[in-house]
Amino acid sequence: MDFHNPDKLEDTVADSANMDAVEKARLEGELVELQSRLPEISDVGEKARLQRDMGRILADLKRGDEAWPLCREAFEHFLTTKNWEAAADCCNLMYLSDQSDSLVALGQGVWLGVTYPINPEISVELLHHIIDDTPDDSDGAAVAAATAAFIVDVRTRDHPLREDLLFFTQQMLGKVANRHSGVSDQAQFSYWIEKLELDQPDKFLVRLRNIVDVLVQDDWWFDREALQAGIPED
Question: pLDDT class for 7, splitting at 50, 70, 90?
Answer without folding.
Answer: low
